[in-house]
Design a protein that fits this description.
Pfam families: MFS_1 (PF07690). It comes from Aplysia californica (California sea hare). It is a multi-pass membrane protein. Its main location: membrane. The chain is mostly helical. It has a two-stranded antiparallel ribbon with strand order 1-2. A two-stranded antiparallel sheet has the order 3-4. The chain is globular. The two termini are 18 Å apart.
Length: 495
């Protein structure tokens, strides 16, 4: 009798099949988790989880290239489309605007129809948006229509961003064991900044004059087509045949119930506010980097190098942080340390970028900003899943992403309008900004100080006000203890 009670607890209401009976699987259409009617001892991981992660990485990488390819060459884009730098900045800003309404739809779809539907939607929206953008490179397109069509293509691709950005945490939870979840989340999430890195390197290298801009448009289209082929023909299932962990086998909260349940979760909202703010700062720096540096005579190549160093160091930092978090389970501590050191590096970068001929110190500071700032992102997403369990992964991580987009829109719009004209003395000095009259260099000191102030606020909020309760981890630890007890009880019975 005692043995049966423990078995019932371990299975959480599931029945143990006879030795020769097939395993029966039922599907929960609300969030595509499987409720397994099987022996609860032992969980299975599948090699194809790495292919799924690769597909997500390709789509995420391509979407980031589409998003940011114009920012490193703002001057050339201004000349090609006949718009001012503010218009070019909107090519990045529309990604943030479009992702807010699409974000809620993407969260619902991911938790309702599953990973496969979300991945395929992301790939096709990427591809369609890129094809629409290509139309602006052909002679049949009137010059007056080029920029509106380009913006429309950006909006279509921006809608695809939400469908892929929410998938890493869900993929890690459903396909990977608990010892690999953070590193899986890191690899999938960091493909986005690596796409930004590629754009920061390729755009200045390939676009030497404004007429070269279509080359990058075609590169983005080819990469997005590769993502379409991989997802449409390679991703065949949203979930594995059997779960890799107890939490993957459990049923998570439906989307709307999960939203309702999060209302009183103070720890989550502190995380959403701070992490969203960090994403907003990253979006602003990535978009405005060339415009911040060129008045001090730092050219496009150096601005592209700074963006590349920030992201490359961030990718390395994220992997290191992910491994540490997986091994130590100290998600909260890793996140807080990342906030502190990235904020300090951001302050140093802003102060040094006001002066000329400081290439090495400026590059070092932006590198450290990326190394610590990006280390926070995947770890914080896993932390969000921990503190909101059993709310579905796409719901919690989606809200953080939307928070980042909303704060990014506000920060970027305000920054553009509070940037000041250069003083007569600064304007008389050599500059790396184009002097063709279509690009007006500005003094970004006040917007940068605003960003520093916001960074301090986010750091204070996460360090002093955030307290984590690892809910998912507690459930899995309890389940492991019950399995151990079951094994100890079964051993005498078998002998």
């Amino acid at each position: 009798m005692e043995n049966q009670e423990i078995s019932d607890k371990m299975g959480q209401g599931r029945e143990r099949p006879e030795d020769n009976e097939p395993i029966i699987v039922t599907e929960n259409v609300l969030d595509q988790h499987y409720e397994y009617l099987r022996d609860p001892s032992g969980y299975t991981v599948y090699t194809r989880r790495w292919f799924l992660l690769f597909v997500i990485a390709v789509i995420n990488f391509t979407n980031a290239m589409i998003w940011i390819m114009f920012s490193p060459v703002t001057d050339k884009t201004s000349q090609y489309y006949g718009v001012d730098p503010t218009g070019v900045n909107w090519l990045s800003l529309v990604f943030l605007v479009a992702s807010i309404p699409c974000g809620f739809m993407a969260s619902w779809l991911l938790d309702t129809l599953g990973l496969r539907a979300s991945i395929i939607c992301a790939a096709w929206l990427n591809f369609l948006g890129s094809v629409i953008r290509n139309l602006t490179a052909y002679s049949f397109m009137p010059h007056s229509a080029q920029f509106p069509v380009l913006i429309f293509g950006q909006v279509v691709a921006a809608c695809g961003q939400t469908f892929v950005m929410f998938t890493p945490a869900k993929t890690a939870a459903l396909w990977f064991p608990d010892s690999q979840r953070t590193i899986a989340n890191t690899l999938a999430s960091m493909s986005n900044p690596l796409g930004i890195l590629a754009a920061n390197v390729l755009s200045p290298a390939l676009i030497k004059k404004s007429d070269d801009l279509p080359v990058m448009l075609y590169i983005c289209t080819g990469a997005s087509l590769f993502g379409v082929l991989l997802s449409t023909f390679g991703v065949c299932s949203s979930v594995p045949p059997s779960p890799p962990s107890p939490s993957a086998a459990a049923q998570s909260e439906p989307f709307f119930l999960g939203i309702k349940k999060l209302r009183k979760n103070f720890a989550f909202w502190m995380l959403a506010f701070s992490m969203g703010g960090g994403l907003a700062l990253f979006s602003a720096y990535t978009t405005f980097l060339e415009q911040i540096l060129c008045p001090q005579n730092y050219d496009n190549s150096f601005a592209g190098l700074c963006g590349a160093l920030m992201i490359a160091a961030g990718a390395v930092g994220a992997v290191i942080a992910g491994v540490i978090a997986d091994k130590t389970r100290k998600f909260s501590e890793v996140t807080k340390l990342g906030f502190v050191f990235s904020n300090l590096a951001g302050i140093a970068f802003v102060q040094l970028a006001r002066y000329r001929d400081l290439e090495y110190p400026v590059a070092i500071c932006i590198t450290l900003f990326g190394a610590f700032g990006f280390a926070v992102y995947p770890t914080a997403l896993e932390l969000a899943v921990e503190v909101t369990y059993p709310v579905a992964e796409a719901t919690s991580t989606g809200i953080i992403f939307i928070s980042g987009q909303v704060q990014g829109i506000v920060l970027m719009i305000i920054s553009q309008y509070i940037a000041q004209p250069l003083s007569p003395h600064a304007a008389s000095l050599p500059q790396a900004c184009p002097s063709d009259g279509e690009f007006d260099p500005q003094d970004w000191t006040i917007p940068n100080l605003l960003g520093n102030g916001m960074g301090v606020l986010y750091t204070v909020a996460i360090v002093l006000l955030f307290r984590a309760e690892y809910k998912r981890m507690k459930v899995e630890d309890r389940h492991k203890i019950e399995q151990t007890l079951q094994g100890e009880i079964d051993s005498p019975v078998r002998s």
